[in-house]
Amino acid sequence: MKIALVQMRSSRDPARNVPEAEALVREAAATGATYVQTPEVSNIFEPDKDRLRAIVKSEGEDALVQRFAALARELRIHLHVGSVAVKAGDGRIANRSLVFGPDGRIAARYDKIHLFDIDLPNGESYRESATYAPGDTAVTVDVQTARLGLCICYDVRFPRLANAYANAGATVLTYPAAFTVPTGEAHWHVLLRARAIETGSFVLTAAQGGEHDGGKATYGHSLAISPWGEILAEAGTEPCVVTAEIDPAQSVLARQRIPALRNARDFGLKSP
Q: Is position 185 annotated as part of the catalytic site?
């Protein structure tokens, strides 16, 4: 199964992002890839919450969603939009992953479960939940001979989700992302390889990379990782396409060699 990861540098203007994303998807399909993944927030990278709320549309009205449905059908590929920001219906926004089948229909939807809320020692705070509505359901989808477990970015820090997917038969974990540069330099490769190794799964992550409108920068380094933790393909920081060949049967073999999923046990906890 040939896969392709599309690395982007989405702007604040959806009208720019759609044709740029389409060009990269076409480049990916031209390599023979039958599964193509794009990054988190492929449709718009907008740090201003008020402007984001004013711009985003419903899923059915979003220009990238509409174009990618037609594109998947034209190219006869599984096209995985890592995520789009769309109206959630409660005044907040959904960070939603969509997988289109070769018929152009949506085969799976996943709303990002884990949201980044933090209070820093210097008094600064960040509340992703103030803008985005969290999902509450993990989602798998079958793509050719693979079963995908759908995740988005910050989900990578929660191994319980990865383990739930692996125990549900997923052989591939997907983490489309828009990681910041400091956390990317510190944790990106370690976290993604860990999720692959501990679950015996392929990990595929298309990323945003480089300096975006307004000066914010993302880490890039889209990755394909084997169930043994080997890096099969990696991008730098520029928009590009990287490809890899994966065999989901290797996930079964890795789990036989290290049966951590089968050996896991429930346990209690005593505290002083």
A: no
